[in-house]
Write a sequence for this structure.
């Protein structure tokens, strides 16, 4: 087991023991989908691609690709992005 895997395992145990949300303890992105009109991404690493049909956001677990029509960025904060439009898919890619 690598050091990185061992570190994640310890962090998960600490999160479980102290009832700390995993997204905070493990530096994971939090993705909230509201119907097919809005996606909120917390704990991102930046915007990779932005077009009216595709928004690609970097995260600690890979890129998050959002596809749809009339996509717009409503909030762009250091730790949060909100995408609105007609959402067709939300997919994590490597």
């Amino acid at each position: 087991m690598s050091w990185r895997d061992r570190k994640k395992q310890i962090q998960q145990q600490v999160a479980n023991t102290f009832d700390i949300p995993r997204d905070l303890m493990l530096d994971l992105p939090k993705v909230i989908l509201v119907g097919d009109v809005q996606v909120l991404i917390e704990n991102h690493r930046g915007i990779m691609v932005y077009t009216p049909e595709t928004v690609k956001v970097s995260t600690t677990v890979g890129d998050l690709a959002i596809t749809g029509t009339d996509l717009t960025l409503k909030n762009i904060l250091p730790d949060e992005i909100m995408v609105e439009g007609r959402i067709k898919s939300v997919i994590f890619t490597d």
User: Anything to note?
Assistant: Residues 3-17 form the longest helix (15 residues).
